[in-house]
Structures are given as C-alpha cells and as structure tokens.
Amino acid sequence: MASTRIKSILLNFSVFSAVVLSAFAFTDQKDGVFIVSRHYMLLKLALSLLLPLFAALLCLFATGDARPLSVITLLLQPAFVVFTIASNGYYIRFSRNFMQNHYAYALLAFFAVYLAAIIAAGRKKITPAAFKGFSKRFFIGYLFVFVFLFVRIYYSSRVDVSLGTVNLIPFAGEIQNSLHSLSPVISAVHAAGNVLFYSAFSLMLRGLFGEKIRSKAGEAALLIGVPFAVSLLCEISQYLTLRGNADIDDLLLNTLGAAIGFFAARGIRKFVLED
Length: 275
Fold this sequence. Notes:
Layout: H1 2-24, H2 41-63, H3 67-87, H4 90-93, H5 103-122, H6 128-154, E1 166-167, H7 174-179, H8 184-209, H9 216-241, E2 246-247, H10 248-273
Parallel strand pairs: 1-2
C-alpha cells in the first residue's frame, strides 16, 4: 500500500512538473532564462501540449485515480495567476515583462491534462464519477486563469491605446484583416485564439453548471448564449471605454468558439459517461 501511494505521488509530481515547465520554460523572449528563438513557437506549443499530456496519461493509466491529479490542477491554476501577478511589473507599471508571454503555453498545458483525463475515462481507466469530479475541480481552478486572461486581453493590455471604432459589417474587420495579413501564421493564431478562448469559456460553464441543466435548449442557452452575451458586452465596453475596436467579426469568431465548446461538451459527456 505504501509503495502504491509513493508511486502515485511521484507520478502526480511528474504531471505538476510538466505543466510548470510548459507554462514557464518556453518563453518567447530572447532574454529569458530559457533562450528559445521565436521561430520555434509552434514547436514550443506542441511541447506544451505533449509534455503534460504524456505525464497525465502515465499517471492516470498507472494509478487509475484522478483525485490527486484534480487537486494538482485545482491548486496550480490559481497559483499560476497569483505568481504571474506578483512577479510581473506589467500590472503595476503597465510595462513589458517576459512573464506575459506564457499564457498560451499555460492554457495549453492545463488542457492537455484535461485531454488525458478524457482519454483515460474513455478507456475506462477512471470511472465516470471520478471524471465528473475531476472536470468540476479542473474548471473551478481554470476559472481563475480565465478571468485573469479576460481582464488582461480586453483591458489591461490596452491601457495606453485610445481606439473606440465600430465595424458592423461581417467579414470586413478582424476576419478580413487576418486573410490579408502579411504574416498568415500570426493571423491564424490570433483568429484561432478568439475561437478557442470562447470554446474554453463554453467548456468551463459546462464543467461548473452543467449538472443543473435538464434540457438541450437550456444547455445551448448556457454554453452558447452566455458566451455570446459576454462577447457582445465586451465589444460594447471596448467602444465605450476606448480600450479597443467594437468588431462584429470578433463577435462571430467568439460565438463560433462557444458553439464548438457546446458540441465538444456534448461529445465529451457522451464519450466518457456512455455505458
């Protein structure tokens, strides 16, 4: 029994280490502790997915227990927010700092652990009840990261800008700019970010409040309607506060992301909980 417990602790520590490494080691800044060129951005993103994914799979398949893993993700995600704010002068002086480039890696690393839990549950290595508990704890932890990024993306990063324009013509704003950009990779990542950010929002709502929804219409209202309303309010507030450009393309991309999250949540639930 003791050796099994030690094994479980070691395996879960490997998951913790993989997430931390992915979130903080793969910096895009040349003056960071880990000197990595910007040209390897896609490779770093891939490693941010693969390292925690394999570590979490190893843990789940070796122990069949999602509880220690859920505690790690529940505690690590708020800790990531607190550590970033505490060590980042950007939030005090609104100046550039190398810490602000780790968000994508952190999010991908966290969701890699969630993906590992889906795979393990689908292979019946963890029970539906264990996956349900893991999912709820995961998204409670992720709520801290999501709110933090929400404020960071929409407001604090634009403190020195005075914008406030409006585009009400579909495909004539963000989408058109992405299609005609000189850097297709960066444009694709930026557009995908809008989509995936709200996909995460939809999945988070499902993880936190999904048990209370009894109908398909109610589920659609929660997972698509709420993100749509939040996105609309954000676009309006960007115009009113001069912190961005109100763009219907952003609203379309965000709603698309919420719809993807809606169908993903239904697919995950059926895949994991189906007998």
